[in-house]
Write a structure and sequence with these properties.
Elements (H helix, E strand, L loop, with lengths): L1 H19 L3 H10 L4 H18 L13 E2 L5 E2 L5 H6 L2
Antiparallel strand pairs: 1-2
Length: about 90
């Protein structure tokens, strides 16, 4: 039971310090140097990553906007680029 409690405390420790700007590696080595077991620290890091990824927003693809120019008869008009825009890739 003590291992699970210490792991939960380490997860909270990681979350709190990641918000402050510390890196996972810096926190990991600090805890190992303080005498924490490497396996418990690794498990806490995995749990922290799992919990943070569940809270992360889902990124959606940006919509691609297309347009066309139509004439008075509702027919599309193709617009050609000028010579220099085609050469320069603008």
């Amino acid at each position: 039971m003590g291992r699970i409690d210490s792991e939960k405390k380490l997860v909270e420790y990681f979350k709190k310090n990641l918000v402050k700007g510390y890196t996972l590696d810096a926190l990991k080595f600090a805890l190992i140097n303080q005498g924490y077991s490497r396996t418990i620290v690794e498990r806490a890091i995995q749990q922290t990553n799992k919990e943070l990824s569940e809270k992360a927003p889902i990124l959606k693809e940006k919509p691609k906007i297309t347009y066309e120019i139509i004439d008075e008869n509702n027919k599309p008009i193709s617009v050609k680029k000028s010579f220099w825009k085609r050469i320069l890739g603008l």
